[in-house]
Design brief:
Elements: E1 10-11, E2 14-15, H1 30-38, H2 43-61, H3 68-83, H4 86-102, H5 108-120, H6 124-137, H7 141-155, H8 158-167, H9 174-186, H10 190-206, H11 210-226, H12 230-243, H13 248-261, H14 265-275, H15 282-294, H16 298-314, H17 322-330, H18 336-349, H19 353-365, H20 369-379, H21 387-399, H22 406-414, H23 417-420, H24 424-429
Antiparallel strand pairs: 1-2
Length: 431
């Protein structure tokens, strides 16, 4: 990613100086998103709650009608998108499981819905089993193949994923285009990925489909950011909010721009704290920890990490935060063995290059640099192009005295600081 160049100095590891000449231009304006932070209530949330009440009442009056269960489940899935409450996702899972059992796993729509729920829970192998059942049923095969692509990508079965993608090829189909964009992003061709995502956006706009426009704009916000097109990223997030003022994911994206590009930690934290009360998820605490650590407030950053782990303890998130937990534990030498334990579990149920990177990184932090290098060379190198993985590889090469590989990687990482986050500036300098 082409990011801005900075002249910097560090005091106690904290960024203290930006050259006036090279200071990035102001992208955001609090007036642009002020209304979305101060909005009272959520009409979509209220409507969803009313629909749940309506359908649950119908089901209670006629419990034989199992067809009501998937409808109620879909409402709880919508609720989860707005609240972030894991219990809403589990409620949807419970209802879909009952519906599938009642139907003897014969209805492809319900099978696919439960598979998508499992994907959200990071229960990928179970999702694959249901997707295969749906495909074997024979009804709506193309929709099942789209789902199979999604699951196979999560599991790292890339040849199978590509085969399913090619089977549904249709350059005028929104679903195909967004998956083609995901594939190109996976192989490291971000420019092409953006092109296909923009084509999908055009289809969503032409059909004036609210849900697809929200999805297109928010994902393009991410893609543009990865490509260093920060202004385009910001504009895309604002377009998302113009359609759905309560779409917290877009506000979180804006908070990242404020923090990572503009280095305005106060405003970034203000945005996060304004949306936290209505969308309570652990990752907000991690972002605040990252921001305060960059400010040099180590004790406050640690307090946010503790609050994060407390939230995990109070709610059963399953494997959803394994990646975050591995990275957090690996950074603490006294907990690196715990990171290794989680990374092994993650590789077992999701054997992707990302998971193997976590394993290699954990081995490095437990002091086994040679084991880390062996895993990285076999399972990671050339298979993922994510900046944080490239940083881990550079550190593994350095630890194994393969210093000739580091300078080129260092240069590329310096161009990815916006995506990695400001705290990586000091880390990359030390490579």
């Amino acid at each position: 990613m082409k990011a801005f160049k900075l002249i910097f100095g560090f005091t106690l590891g904290v960024f203290t100086l930006i050259s006036c000449e090279n200071k990035p231009k102001q992208i955001t304006n609090p007036q642009d998103y002020k209304a979305y932070l101060e909005i009272k209530g959520n009409k979509e949330l209220d409507l969803t709650l009313a629909e749940i009440e309506f359908w649950e009442a119908k089901f209670q009056s006629d419990t034989i009608q199992k067809s009501y269960l998937p409808i109620i489940a879909s409402k709880y899935s919508n609720l989860f998108q707005y609240t972030g409450d894991i219990n809403d996702l589990y409620k949807a899972c419970e209802l879909l499981s009952k519906a599938n059992k009642a139907n003897e796993y014969s209805k492809v729509g319900t099978l696919r819905s439960l598979a998508r729920n499992y994907i959200a829970q990071h229960r990928f192998k179970e999702a694959l089993s249901l997707a295969e059942k749906a495909f074997a049923n024979g009804e709506g095969k193309k929709e099942s193949q789209k789902l199979l692509f999604d699951v196979q990508m999560e599991l790292g079965n890339y040849e199978a994923a590509l085969a399913n993608l090619e089977a549904v090829k249709d350059m005028n189909d929104y679903d195909y285009l967004i998956r083609l964009a995901k594939w190109n992003d996976h192989i490291g061709d971000l420019e092409t990925a953006i092109t296909f995502m923009e084509r999908a956006r055009t289809i969503a706009e032409k059909n004036d489909n609210k849900i697809l426009k929200i999805w297109s704009y928010s994902n393009l916000g991410d893609f543009y950011g990865h490509a260093g097109r920060v202004q385009d990223s910001y504009n895309s997030y604002l377009k998302t909010l113009a359609i759905d003022p309560n779409y917290t994911y877009a506000l979180k994206g804006i908070a990242w721009i404020v923090f990572s590009y503009e280095r305005n930690t106060v405003e970034a934290k203000r945005i996060i704290e304004m949306i936290e009360p209505t969308h309570k998820t652990p990752d907000f605490l991690l972002l605040k920890s990252e921001i305060t650590a960059f400010e040099g407030k180590a004790a406050e950053a640690d307090a946010y990490k503790e609050a994060y782990f407390e939230m995990l303890a109070q709610n059963n998130y399953g494997a959803m935060y394994n990646k975050y937990n591995t990275l957090l534990y690996a950074d603490d030498k006294s907990m690196a063995a715990k990171a290794l334990e989680i990374a092994r579990v993650e590789v077992n149920h999701r054997p992707t290059p990302d998971s193997y990177d976590l394993l290699a990184w954990s081995y490095l932090n437990t002091g086994d640099a040679k084991k880390a290098l062996a895993i990285a060379n076999e399972k990671v190198v050339g298979k993922s192009f994510e900046p944080h993985i490239q940083y881990h590889l550079a550190m593994i090469y350095k630890a194994n005295n393969q210093l000739d590989k580091v300078p080129k990687m260092k240069k590329e990482l310096q161009e990815s600081i916006y995506e990695l986050g400001p705290e990586f500036e000091a880390k990359i300098q030390k490579l």
